[in-house]
Write a structure and sequence with these properties.
Elements lengths: L6 E5 L4 H12 L3 E6 L3 H7 L6 E5 L5 H15 L4 E4 L5 E2 L7 H29 L2 E6 L13 H21 L4 E8 L13 E2 L11 H11 L7 H12 L7 E4 L1 H20 L1 H4 L7
Parallel strand pairs: 1-2, 1-4, 2-3, 4-6, 5-8, 6-7, 7-9
């Protein structure tokens, strides 16, 4: 099926990478359902009331809203071919600093929100015996390379595992699943109204997490990734006949992946004797 005939369903579509995915899919000729938590009319205005755009209100933390939003999409377009689970936010916090409430809120959006949408869309894809699920993870989904992102990274590690499981389970049904790991892109992710920080700050972490907190403002707006190119990359991914299970996006993400893979290989070799010492004697 060409992009012109495909129907996309994109969560977190109001800004950042989600907005660029919607824009790129529309430019490719697709029909797009853009799901936003609020301010539905703003997305219509941003995209000049594009004739192939349907904007729905959806807080992914609500299973009921997911059901309602998907029903509206099916009533309008009749099918869903590409699901992009993009909605989410980052929490900057040392693991110890994060309160139970902050951690649960992070998981409610980044993990359970993904599952809410999946449970609603998958019956449609199974009935069609086709579709492509793209779960937007992060470079922290395979390597927590900076202090302060352990909790956020944990949610993205979960997204990676969910996607791997989906890929295996759905392959016989003609449905594909890819976890996409963006590097740092010049979006509003690091703005104060997008990135959240733990209320608790522990002095002993000043040399680690504290340095990241201090550096964020200077780095914001200087990220190497171009969001528009990310959107177009997602269109290329969705149009692939044999998409990968995992796809780092951005040179920084690819480098983090290589470093993590090399480190794991080195550690495995260094600890080989202990690793392989626990099987029953033959």
């Amino acid at each position: 099926m060409t992009q012109y005939n495909k129907v996309w369903f994109v969560t977190g579509a109001s800004k950042g990478l989600g907005l660029e995915i919607v824009r790129a899919a529309l430019e490719a000729g697709a029909k797009v359902v853009g799901a936003v938590r609020d301010h539905v009319e703003e997305l219509y205005e941003t995209l000049d009331h594009h004739q192939n755009l349907l904007v729905i209100q959806l807080d992914v933390r609500s299973g009921d809203q997911a059901q309602k939003g998907v029903s509206i999409a099916i009533e309008k377009f009749g099918r869903i071919d590409v699901l992009v689970n993009n909605a989410g936010y980052s929490l900057l916090s040392a693991v110890e600093e994060a309160s139970d409430e902050e951690v649960r809120k992070q998981f409610d959006t980044n993990v359970f929100g993904v599952l809410n949408v999946l449970r609603t869309v998958l019956p449609i894809l199974r009935k069609q015996r086709s579709g492509h699920i793209i779960n937007v993870s992060a470079l922290y989904g395979f390597a927590v390379s900076l202090p302060g992102y352990g909790i956020y990274g944990a949610t993205k590690f979960a997204v990676e595992a969910i996607t791997e499981g989906l890929s295996i389970e759905l392959a016989p049904l003609g449905i594909k699943a890819t976890a996409v790991e963006p590097g740092m892109f010049t979006t509003s992710l690091l703005d104060k109204n997008s990135m959240q920080e733990s209320k608790s700050v522990i002095g002993d972490y000043a040399a680690t997490v504290g340095q990241i907190r201090n550096a964020i403002a200077g780095f914001n707006g200087k990220q190497p990734g171009d969001p528009a190119k990310f959107g177009r990359a997602m269109v290329a991914l969705a149009n692939s006949d044999n998409p990968p299970g995992h796809l780092p996006i951005g040179k920084d993400a690819a480098e983090v992946y290589r470093v993590k893979a090399a480190m794991m290989a080195t550690e495995l070799e260094q600890w080989k004797e202990l690793t392989e010492s626990t099987d029953h004697a033959k």
